[in-house]
Amino acid sequence: METENAIDRADVNGHDQAAQADLGRLPALIESLLFAAGGPVPLGRLVDALAGPERREVTAALKVLAEGYEREGRGIRLVQVGGGYQLRTPAEHAHWVRRLLRERPPRLSRPMLETVAIVAYRQPCTRVEIEAIRGVEAEAVLSTLLERRLVRVVGRKEAPGRPLLYGTTREFLEVFGLPDLSVLPTLRELGVDANILSSPDLVVDAKGVRPTRDETAPAADAGPAPVAEGDSAGEAG
Amino acid sequence: MTACTVRLPIFEGPLDLLLHLIKRNEVQVSDIPIATITDQYLAMLEELPELNLDGAGEYLVMASTLVYIKSRMLLPAPEEDEELEEDPRHELVQQLLEYQRYRDVALALGERAVLDRDVFARDPEALEPAEPGESAEPRVRDASLADLLDALREVMRRLRPPAVHEVEREEIPIGRAVERVLARFALVEQVVFGSLFPPDATRADVIVTFLALLELIRLRVLRARQAERFGVITLTLAVPTVAEAAERVHDLGALEAGWRGEEKHHGDGERDR
To answer: Which of A160, B99, B207, B210 is found 20 to 30 A from B92 (Cα to Cα)?
Structure first.
């Protein structure tokens, strides 16, 4: 699973042998920075801290580093997560790491997962909207999610009662190993029975995921539906 | 149905239960045999242990919806011009499809390599704030109420759990907390949010200090600013001097008295008779 968001092999081109030589100790330097930082470090911050190499070179060095870890079967992976780069252990070592650490693994119950999924796709959204989808009361789950910092209050809806609006956090991306919201699968891609999913009603793009009211979209191989600028965030509300 | 023993899965609500029945009957969500499903649903309700507790309402509402749809399916459709006559199941089907999609997303999320469960990383260190203009990091902005609440939640989380259960009523005037917060600005221009709450503060202390802070921000005596989500919130005076700030809040005592009065007012209905 962790290879899925290991840095994309495709984004640096063929002449890497030469490039690798030029990069010198840049990969090692970046390794130090990422190790020291612990949390995800945005590319821009790496470039700032290195003060010299260009963005392109830093990206190349990140790639060299990531591939090295995989090729050599090391106990560390470089992943792109929560808008930055981070060193993590590979999932196949979880068993032993857990035996060492005192921390109990976070519990992610089904209500929590369902609720955070709804918030992720429909944000900003209100408690009532979540309850309408799940068909059950959401107050307790929401407060758990708030406490765990997987969701946060992002504002209030301009509607009677000015209900609170919820959105997901950077922690949400980090916990689920997502580079950003745009990689959330379209609900259609989830391998659900094709008969059931006859009317895709969500689209994904750089701005996130949201419903579209395009009922006429062809059911099969249409790709993510194009989005009109107009019906963005407001639609979720 | 009665003959076989079914180990009941735990359902996350009426929709989840319905999807379970639909799957068990190997039928399409879009074409539910409503009579069969309704009967099975009602039969399930009798067995569900959670119905003895709360949450029964949601299941019962769905039961009545099902029975209503079933009855509408039995009625002959009104004759004329009702090409547009909707399938009585339409709304329910849409709801089920939507819920099902999110349920699948939830499943997919749960199967990911979850941090601190499947994969591990070092605890994050605070990064040096980005140099202004050099990167695309967000500029410092006014912290919203939501940001302040996030920060408060963090403070509450850090508090040591009380060693013993103490039942002790304490009167903590907000006015004093206001003075205490303002005093911090006598020597420095900036105070970090977290530093207002010493680790040994009680919950009550924290809450009163936080209320004082909100009040000071509301009165535009203080300004709370934050560079990024969950970033450090810094507080600055929004007026030139502490003296001026104190003057501005001078009315707070009266204000507080006002709150007390209000509280008493609320109580009137219940207690004072």
So the answer is: A160
**Cβ–Cβ below 8 Å for A195 and B107:** no
Domain ranges of chain A: 2-100, 106-178, 184-237
Q: Which amino acid is at B157?
A: R
Q: Which residue of A has its CA nearest to B10?
A: A110
In 3-state terms, chain B is what percent helix, strand and coil (to 5)? 55, 5, 40
What is the dotted CATH code of the domain comprising A2-100?
1.10.10.10
Nearest-CB residue to B120 (from A40, A97, A147) = A97
| Stretch 22-51 of chain A: residues touching chain B, C-beta under 8 Å | 35-42, 44-45, 47-49
User: How near does any CA of chain A get to the CA of B84, in Å?
Assistant: 17
Q: How far is A30 from chain B (nearest CA, A)?
A: 15
Looking at the fold, whether B97 and B190 belong to one and the same domain comes out as no
* Shortest Cα–Cα distance, A26 to chain B (Å): 20
Inside any domain, residue B8: no
**Domain shared by B248 and B154, yes or no:** yes
Q: B151 and B94 in one domain?
A: no
CA-angle at B135, arms to B131 and B139, nearest 5°: 70
- Chain B neighbors of A153, CB-CB under 8 A: 146, 149-150
Q: For every one of its 273 residues, what pLDDT tens digit does chain B have, with 9 covering 90 and above?
A: 444 444 456 788 889 999 989 988 999 888 889 999 999 998 888 876 655 555 678 888 899 999 999 888 888 766 655 555 678 888 899 999 999 989 988 988 998 899 999 999 998 888 877 665 444 444 566 777 777 877 787 777 777 665 666 566 666 677 788 888 888 888 788 888 888 888 777 888 888 888 888 888 888 888 888 877 677 888 888 888 888 888 777 765 555 555 544 444 444 444 443
Classify domain A106-178 by CATH number: 1.10.10.10
Determine phi and psi for B41, rounding to 5 degrees: -60, -50
Which CATH number fits the domain that encloses residue B267? 1.10.10.580
A48, A94, A111 ranked by CB distance to B135: nearest: A48
- How far apart are alpha carbons B178 and B180 in whole angstroms? 5
Collapsing DSSP states into helix, strand and coil, what is residue B118? coil
Please state whether the peptide bond connecting residue A124 to the residue before it is cis, i.e. omega within 30 degrees of 0. Answer: yes
Dist. CA B17–CA B38, nearest whole Å = 11
Provide the domain count of chain B: 2
How near does any CA of chain A get to the CA of B247, in Å? 32
Domain containing residue B94: 14-75+87-110
Do residue B155 and residue B243 come from a single domain?
A: yes
